[in-house]
Design goal:
The protein has helices at about 5-10, 15-25, 30-50, 50-60, 75-80, 105-120, 140-150, 165-175, 190-200, 230-250, and strands at about 80-85, 90-95, 100, 125, 155-160, 180-190, 205-210. By secondary structure, the protein is an alpha/beta fold. A hairpin with a 4-residue loop joins strand 2 (about 90-95) and strand 3 (about 100).
Length: about 260
Amino acid sequence: MPIRYFFKQLLLPPGVLLLLLLLAWWLRRRAPKLAALCFVTGLVGLWLMSLPVVVEWTARLVEREPALVEAQWKQLDEEAGAIVVLGAGREQSDPAWGGDQPGYIALERLRYAARLAKTSGLPILTSGGLHYGQPPSEAMLGAEVLQRDFGVATRWLEERSRTTWENAVFSAEMLRAAGIERVVLVTSASHMSRSRWCFEQNGIEVIAAPVGFMGVPNGRPLNGWLPEAKAFWQNGMLLNEVVGMAVYPLVYRSAND
């Protein structure tokens, strides 16, 4: 298991907020004022992370790419050479299915990719590697769902990637080998800006096909000011994208550099 996993879990909520609360308890006698600051910061952070209204506000800042209009779908084959759908984790050993399955977000992306493929006739590339080194790959799971549940074949499987950057690097290699330089990229709306950047840095033009928008009216009582477990999960994903968009240009270099 990569060491970056541990750092990521500790430096992003809820890990960092729980560490602040633990630090507050440890400092309660040594440095009461600092302990109080850590406690308030951790508690307020947990509260804000649990609010649907914060999901809505943050998503509006992160989700920069508009949705494709349905009227555009039929013309996609004239503008691109393939549909690339990015993996999003997997659920392990689901007894209902007799094995691993794509995660909820991955299924949302796959469903949209299938709809676009059926309308446009474009071939699909699924991208996603192994889950902590254990087969099957996310790409393979996605291809199985596309075939068995949506009746759509997958032409390419990119099974080596572990990050969004690697999604782009390894997919670009396969696409260029097939003479394709422009794709329809299917991923979550909050993930699209970082994904587009990665693919374009690797020489692949992108038509954005985002799905799963969170920056829409939350429809909750009191306009989303009541804490909710789902909101905490969504805010975590959004914060991951904010950090990712800031860090990726510092860490990764263009294939053309």
